[in-house]
Design brief:
Length: 343
Amino acid sequence: MGKFQSKVKRNSSKYRAESRGEESPPVPPSPQHSRAHTDAVTCIAALKSDLCVSGGKDKAVVVSNWRTGSALKRLVGHEREVTKVSCVFGSNRLFSASRDKSVLLWDLHGKLGPTQRFMGHHLIVTGLAVSPDCRLLLTGSRDNTLCKWDVESGRCVQNAGICRNLVTHLCWVPGEPYVVQTSEDKMIRVWDSRDLQVALTFPMKQYIQMHCDVSQDGNYCLTCSNGFGGQGCEATLWDLRQTRDKVCEYRGHLQSAACCMFLPAGTCETPAVATSAHDCTVKIWDQSSGACLSNLFLDGAGPLSSLAVCDTGSILCATFNSGIFSLQTDGAKGAGLRQVLNF
């Protein structure tokens, strides 16, 4: 195993954080720009230092300049809601998955239509992970299967299925041939992309696992779960070098935690992670202690669906009711979090 052995209710006050001490002070509304999507934004990812890609219920994939809030390219090809977007940061290729059971490949500087189609799943595609060299694509679905694709040919070269493994998210481990996967069966699995076999599993959680992320050094994995009334709704830190137990938990959301991610070094004074939830809040946590460093309530945004980090100190948040927010952290003020743009 190499490294692994060594190593919503809209505008509802009930979603506000219970601990007022954690909340950021009231801030004026962020500058408004034309919305990238005409409906709920379901997913977002960083594409380049100034570009992001997002998908929505409007069936569109949109490339935006997140610094200015302007939509640069609107890619249309899916027949139903876009569920996931993925890319290798800095590349010109981006991938999108949809409820129409397809995955599409787009070229940032190419034609508006997709350059490749990946067809093979029997139900909604809910997981998408691209290898660092952009040659392999792993997809997961509610049909309980994972598929491995050759990006150039669009051919499915391997697939694997596990009963009740309703995939919720996939994330590639940097520098390794492994992919972390979360599922509705409450399991967290690590797949070896070379033979598409499960290499590791973590102890089963009590709630459905919604999302996962892996630290840049490839040592840690972060997952988050659904829940309600403050039960569940947490994020969990795991050590990929040993899978006996969790390292830390981050508790404080009142509704399902939909997304979690590691923040780049330098964002805060200490290593930190971020979460977004259906309770309209984005939280920043001290990675080691689990202490909540910052809490931002996005009033009227509805459930928060996805997060992305494009550079140190900047966080993008996709929402159901209010498009995409660009947020800024201030490590000098205890990881304070404020709105910058809304597009």
